[in-house]
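Model the whole thing, not chain by chain.
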Amino acid sequence: MFMNSNLFEPGKSKPERNFVQLAVKQNQRFDGRRSNECRDVELTFGADWGTVAVSLGETKVLTHVTCDLGAPTTSRPNEGKLQLNVNLGGVAFLDEVQSTHDQRSLTLNSLLERTFRSSRCVDLESLCVAAEQHVWCIRVDINVLNHDGNLYDASTIATLAALMHFRRPDVTFADDELRIYTEKEREFIPLLFLHYPVSVTYCIFKSSGQPIVDPLLLEENAADSVIVLSFNSYQELCTLNAGGTAPTNVRTIMQCARNAATRAKSLVDFIRKALSLDEERRLQGGRLVQGLVALIGENQQKLSFRKLMGHQKQEPQDLQSEKMDVDTKAIAKPRVEEMAVEEESSKQETDAPLDSSSWLPQDEDSQKLPTPSEASASKAGKGKQNRSKSKANKKQQAKKQNNSDSEEEAKPVI
Amino acid sequence: MNLPGKMDVGKDKLRQMNCEFNPLSRCDGSVMYSQGATVVIAAVLGPIEVKTQNLSIDGSYLECNYRPKAGLPQVKERIREAAIRDVLELALLAEAHPRSKMSVQVQELEDRGSIDACAVNSACLAMLVGGLPLKYSFAAVHCIINEQGEYVLDPDQSETLHQRASFTFAFDSVEGNLLLVQTKGAFKIAQFNDIECLCRAASAEIFQFYRNQVAKYHGRSEAIAEKEEDASMET
């Protein structure tokens, strides 16, 4: 009688899948966007510190930050705690099908953990009141209200905005006595950040080489693989999550990474601008601070990415053109390299047959490759001609991670 | 926080109500409802498949969840959830869909006083817009007795700090029967009766708000709805 298992997941059935694949092949998307175009982001700040509602098209997320004094862990006695809590059930009805719900909450949770905790974006040492005794525990509750694709970006934007919006009360510790000041006594203190990470999601389809950014739920479910990249405002890579079944070219990933870095930067700029606007409104006080009532209907209080970045002396055009530049560069570069590679291969053609499809299996059989690293490269399906380049790219990525101030992130790469 | 309190609204008036229908795309009906600065979002899904343990052959199973803004639901939220479920169970026409489940989820967005009443009202609106069968619609009203012994209808959170007693009543729209009574604090029975009358009068205002909003949503203008209301009152 009922078919719950497929009711909530568009894009899981075969006809839908084929349809999406076909559309992507023709460079078409359901809402008329181009493959590198994102949906509008809207931020609404609540009346309390640290309450933010984010909407990314139809995807809606509510994030609330609370703080609490507690004891630190024994391994890090002088650091505060940051706890992230994702809530997928409730009004989003994502818990109707248990198997997909579990998987989704796990991936989302691990992504957020890596983006915000492992990358050490919040200065946790500043949250210490008395070493080994009292530290601030910051708890972030991420309530998913509606899921229409790209939950990752919506929740990272919401989490970052909420953390940046949040203020904690001032506290003093003297003579073994904690004293927490109210807002009237002493002004609340914002959190300290080391960097500001935001994620950007790409979907890759087997039918087309062009990755699409900011997917809808239909596209996300039908996609062969989903790549999530978190960049901070200094354009350093914080998290890379690539899964799925589509074999992805290094070039494509690099192209995604370049675009994601610019997008992340502009997103952080947008959040900063929205926060300063919110602060202005709070200073003026009175009726201007509406809180989340502003979510209802069309409203000035909703801070939209397009509008806000548009007000700034035609920055969107610059930004767009900049983005386009990057795009064309990203597309153009590989082409040049391809040409070079082709030339190279044509030179080499005299001494070795280089049609990768024909030599790859042979290669594995005869075990010509001495080093394991090269073998793994060939297993990954890369031809001899671009192996060196892929290595270079990998090195670049590794370097990028080294540059970031996260030790934990960098270690596994080395 | 210098929020606009209830300064601009009289003590015997409800705060301004506001709502948006179907802000969410995954459910059958959803509503974002606000009373003053209190905002909740409610969503319904049904009739859908039910687990065998909850299956009932002579009526649908009602699932009702209330989620706070932060953290897991505690005792306070469970009580609120039970209140919503009790009212909904009375109003729901369960016989219409046996062997199925109706799921109602209420998410708190911002709590600035009378969240109990808001949650119940939003659940009713979500049921209406989701097209789930109800015997009647219902409305809840919150009222307190403050320090000076005055009655404050639909108080803001700042006004509830020094309250003597608080009341939440829910009424049905057809016969005006009491569906829910929640009281806290000390009061005289005469005060209880007074406040019941006050809340009953206020519930009429909420039902009118329901009618206007639903009419607006389904494409009839507010003016027509009001005119018809006047006409029916005259006859």
